[in-house]
Queue: 2 jobs
Job 1
Amino acid sequence: MKGQEIKVRAVGTTGSARKLIGTILKAQVVKNEITAHAIGTLSKYPDTRTIFEIGGQDSKIILIENGIVVDYAMNTLCAAGTGSFLSSQAKRLGIEVERFGDWALKSKTPVKIAARCTVFAESDLVHKAQIGHKKEDIVAGLCTAVVTNYLNNVGKGKTIKAPIIFQGGVSKNIGVIKAYEETIGEPVHVDEHSHLMGALGAAILAKTSGKEQDFIFDIEEINFETRGRECTFCANNCEIICVHKDNELIDSWGNKCDKGAS
């Protein structure tokens, strides 16, 4: 806070770059997104049964029973159900992505958009615009398509139970929230800090890790570099990611067996 000296005692990292950032900051805790999101959510909503999360690059579902994660699924392959997909479509339609939800709520007759993949969705969007569908109906159709894609892929075979918490950057889109509620017939709750729940979980885990140290975050003068190499010690040919600090190897990962350990 302004005017106060802040002392950092512990650091936790999560997300797709958790190992890299954790290595650079010497984090006490480096946790996967499923654990971090569950811990963060349960700290505020202990009765949570289902977590929907749609970020910029991937999406996930987490199922919880009595405060314990019992099942989950992630989609990291298809961009059609992510924030980057909505951002690109908003740009194509000439709408600020922050106002996407407002446009969706104007719609009276949402159009059906094929959202099996980004290519099909973009092609269908262009076609719908060319034949004269209103912009708000196309936007509402895109929001519904994101939900349909999510439930048919990430949520396939999962039993969705309330209370349901929606997280990630896309949870700020009221059009997608409405589409979820209309599709599954249950209220979907969004916290004001829904996009930070994973970070909250990582912070809680770091705080309760029992490890403590003084951190120096003045890393501007330190040169960090990642270098990729292919391991040739066995038939796996793993791609190893090596992190160097001022040309000194400080960590590596990617090996499937001990032969590739640096």
Job 2
Amino acid sequence: MQKTQTYIKEHKDKFLNELFALLRIPSISAEQEHKPDMEKCAEHLRDALLSAGADKAEVMPTTGNPVVYGEKFVNSSAPTVLVYAHYDVMPVDPIDQWHSEPFEPDIRDGKIWARGADDDKGQGFMHIKAFEAMVQSGELPCNVKFMLEGEEEIGSPSLGAWCEEHKEMLKADIILVSDTSMIGWDTPSITCGLRGLTYMEVDVTGPCRDLHSGLYGGAVANPINVLSKMIASLTDENGHITIPGFYDNVRELSEAERNEIKGTPFSIENYKKALDIEEVAGENGYSTMERTGIRPALDVNGIWGGHTGEGSKTVIPSTAHAKISMRLVPNQDYKKIAELFEQYFRSIAPKSVKVSVRYLHGGAAYVSPTSLPAYQAASRAIEKTFGKKPLPFYSGGSIPIISTFEKILGIKSILIGFGLGSDAIHSPNENYPLDNFFRGIETIPYFYKYFSEK
């Protein structure tokens, strides 16, 4: 890998400039106005794969945004790695909280600041550049395929059917993903578990129109008040989710398993300081790392209704709305949870309002056993470049499509992410440390080397 590492060192400025060109494309999948940008971004990545040395690369249609597929074959007897990443990014609101333009990347304090810098353009682009370095150096030891999608941030609604249609083309020995974070720069880790997700939207409707709050206040149910009380009742004073049947399939970890989590380096004081909070909160009886890694959670992701503009408007709104997500653990069926949520939410609504409940998207939890040869290869690769053996880590995040890959393609995934908790993904001022970007590019070739040796 010496030639590959030399190539990386000599082309760092080139890699960074190319990443910036990718980050400038506002590929927001959740906003229809950016549909042309999704096509533009896909074409940009196709060209990047061809330039990096792919035998072929193409933009392939789906029922939604396109998938970029590329491949390079070196030997029919060599293993095949399928690289997955996504090129869509989260919306940028609230825009006034950004310190620089979200789609004009900037380098400050040793970090790249831009929407998608970490999630997932920066991390996905590491794979293209590592691949380029190996191809150009003549040190690529295995076959490599790329599957880059444009809908991960909205639940990958089109990718499952696309994978089903192209199962033969996507055959591989392992899927390699960089869309997760490490515990810290000094505590490298590999994500061996992801929580599942069920995402819902609810509407509460009261009167047939907005009403004068003086003439009707106290006599007609206010949908915002009702919705707030309904949401508050979804969890109790112990942080326990109150939906009947919600915990039926949640496995309680053994004392030994919980002690292993306790052994992971974690400073609650640093955690609170980084978030500017005085106290943490959550389900009683569990630590912060347990709450985010091995326990389910319910959160309101957005709530709106009535007058929210400048000045005052004294109304009782006709409707109120909320988006609610539930993070799930292994054995919880995300579709079943959606049904339980709807049944319970309707049951707690007073007769003074009407309720609408919609399932938006979701996916199952995922576990990547540390006994997998690919996990061991990833561990060796990180140890080679970081100088420390990485810890296995259960992430609180979700990548719903990962469990779908296993179901449809029959292939396990290795989650070798290089982000940090401070990267502010999904928030204003998303960033990605330059050191992590380049260290990722340096590490990935060693994964190919060690995995091919297996």
